[in-house]
Amino acid sequence: MGKFLKCPRCHSDNPESSRFCNDCGSSLDGKAAPDPKVQPSFTKTLDTPTPALKKGTLFANKYKIGGEIGRGGMGVVFKAEDAKLKRSVALKLLPLEQSQSPEAKERFMREAQAAAALDHPHICTVYEVEEQDGQMYIAMAFIDGMSLKARIVRKPLEVAEAMDIALQVAEGLGEAHRKGVVHRDIKPANIMLAARGGVKIMDFGLARLAGAGDLTRTDAVMGTVAYMSPEQALGQKVDHRTDIWSFGCLVYEMLAGQGPFQGGHEQAVFQAIVHGEPEPIAALRSDIPAGLAGVLEQCLQKSALNRYLDFQALIQDLKAVDLRVIASAPAPSSHKPSTSIAVLPFTNMSSEKEQDYFAEGIAEELLNALAHIHDLRVVARTSAFAFKGKDIDIREIGRKLNVKSVLEGSVRKAGNRLRITAQLINVEDGFHLWSERYDRDMADIFAIQDEITTAIVDSLKVTLKVGEKTALRKRSTENIEAYNLYLQGVHFWNKRTPEGVKKGMIYFREAIEKDPGFALAYAGLANSYNVIGYYGPLSPREAFPQARDLALKALELDEYLAEAHTALGTALGTHYWDWAGAENAFKRAIELNPGYPSARQLYGIFLMFVGRYDEAIQELRKGQELDPVSASITWVLGIAFAHARHYDRAIREYKKAMELDPAAYLPYLWTVFPYSMKGMHEEAIAAAKRMLELLGEEISPWNTVLAQVHAAAGNQDEARRILTEVIALSEKRYVSPAYIAGVYRELNERDKAFEWLHRAYEERDHWLLTIIARPGLDNLREDPRAKALLRKMGLE
Asked: The whole model's pTM is what?
């Protein structure tokens, strides 16, 4: 196996060619110095002088020592023979001087208890834990083989071999998590490959039993740096999803021969984990299956919320990987922002609470202006404003949003007088990069915004490209009263409730009355009509034509307005089925403002409509990067997964959206369909009922969804009863004919289904697009009548 070097810090073995320890990241030659700028408080690895146990010694009157086989920060391991049972064992001894430490003894005991509670083929069996003359020890099964770390040293693994090992590790960890045990130190050195085949997970020394006290001090970070999740590295509370991150690092290393986060010492690795992004695995190897690349991407999400919910879901995706479908190597990015910022909602210091809209609007206008800078990643409004009213340290907010700087401020408005303060803060150390106070008249609001954006660009040392300086100072109106009305419209629009959108539309119209040349107000009104066209109360024929005309008017006034191109693309694709025109509009919007998450989200919906699911998922992932806590982007991503037949991944996205916005009804609406496809009819019915509870209507157009899931579950009488109510309701208000068709399809009344599908076509019902494409209706699509409809829609 070649020669190895002992790490001077943790004493683990490393390949002779290594410069840095694979376990703790320390320099093997003593030349690397830590980064003085970052000083996370990692727990010091314990020195472990070898106890006086020579070969042939009888330890504890029952174990005959064969020799030392390994050592690490919490103990020395010997091969031994159980003299009574005549079996080989591995003895792990806590260093004698550490056996006097109550905390070390407790942690050592916890390792044994955690491992002993587990009985699984891929977890090393623990026989006993005892104390001999003040020396704590664990006796466990001896594994004849090599560590995964030693195997990787030779060369990266073939994909099939790595997949096989990954599945076994995942199954073992899944069992541990089911028993309430989190490992917290998954790495190649803790995975043994048995000579006779099979994988064993070792060393639960950092494990946390559910319900047990957490021994990790608040000023300490336990584990091996290179495999720590961001939350673990920052000393935050961790759960089972920290093992999912570490598992992703382990699989990445099996395939690439190196970990996803590199650095000359542990401080540099820490920085990479918290702030950096790994090189896509497909960029390092040309034989990586697309499905496996997707698994790694989800495991290594910075936010635990965006990782797999559990190992069961991860295992399902691993087993579904098609080795024949190879991931495309990512094209070199022409745009990699060098820095990043979050603009928090400004605090309203005015005596009137209703001035909240103005304080929020100032922040949002600054955010929208900065989003046009290609060399600056700007977190979208939904994610940045999620921290409003919460007492969270700025540095913590920056870490949660993965940004290097945060802008915060306050607004005091009294009559026409303004006092605006703004501070730009460096997340790494909490120091102010810039701050200023403005005491001005309301008439100076635009000049103040220009000064703040210019100061931010200068402080962050961002180089503006041609045209970006003009874009920063661009104003859609000079009318202060119209601008004030527009800010109120945006405030209510952002509530994303039917009442909020309607109220926002009133203010947008009033802004247009004050300034008929106000392009942004037209775009806001256009997007509002698109929303009520999607979800009511107006019919598609009433809503979408107005959205298109308003978007065209906005573009007539300002052809460089991304919001207007997005609104136009939505109307053209959703209602007019002008697929080429819609795609051109979305691409133009993204070209004009790459940091506009709504354009990514709505383009993703368009791509689903035309059956390009992989592209839709990719676009929605980009939207999530811009707006990481957006519930709407998350549930739309769930729709894309569902239409691509990835039902479990769809359900996971819907659950995340429910967690992000518990009051949103749409995640419940969409989750019923993958539940039905999986035969989970009780869950589907419960989700549909919860959706209707959140809507607060006894009989709603969305009762069609409840009827569909009852029919799918075999409850035909209940489905027909609900359907009768909904058809009666359709005489009074708009009800999607396509969804009524869906109920008839589930009732196996195909002719009735097509009768309503044709009505949906005549009414330009946009839900026809989702009904036609929905999983489970494949046999319906084979009907000549369905093919004729698709041809007429330009979707053959």
From this structure: 0.60
